[in-house]
Amino acid sequence: xxxxxxxxxxxxxxxxxxxxxxxxxxxxxxxxxxxxxxxxxxxxxxxxxxxxxxxxxxxxxxxxxxxxxxxxxxxxxxxxxxxxxxxxxxxxxxxxxxxxxxxxxxxxxxxxxxxxxxxxxxxxxxxxxxxxxxxxxxxxxxxxxxxxxxxxxxxxxxxxxxxxxxxxxxxxxxxxxxxxxxxxxxx
Length: 187
Fold this sequence. Notes:
Blueprint: H1 2-27, H2 29-36, H3 41-66, H4 82-109, H5 118-150, H6 156-185
Helix pairs in contact: 1-5, 1-6, 3-4, 3-6, 4-5, 5-6
Main location: membrane
Membrane topology: Multi-pass membrane protein
Keywords: Cell membrane, Membrane, Transmembrane, Transmembrane helix
């Protein structure tokens, strides 16, 4: 229950970031037209697909945790346990963060920085805070993986940890879908 309440507060935090983005965009439409042309939409689309697919891997980990299956019983992905699926999820999340860093470097070379304009501030604030949340999720996966390896008897407590971490990860994915639609697709 505590996680759901906390995620509710995170919804309000990101709602504030969306409000900042839309307010600044409405006051400087010409700036937004110029700066959004510098975005690599195909690259961001691939990065988005990777993050969204990571939610599926995360959910497969939850299904395994609910079966109390910590580790794989075969090399077949259909027989993977929680640790293998969370490892895949972790790798996909790390690829997403690396993609964001790469995108930031490209935009910086294009002159889009945090202090260059209202667009730069809004872009880096919204995507940067999301990136920090993804990084937090990656840390949570490492802790959950460690708990999976350390548990002598994997039970309801450990499975609940996996489920709670998945709630957070799915939340982060849904927020990114909204950010992607607003920042990259909405013209």
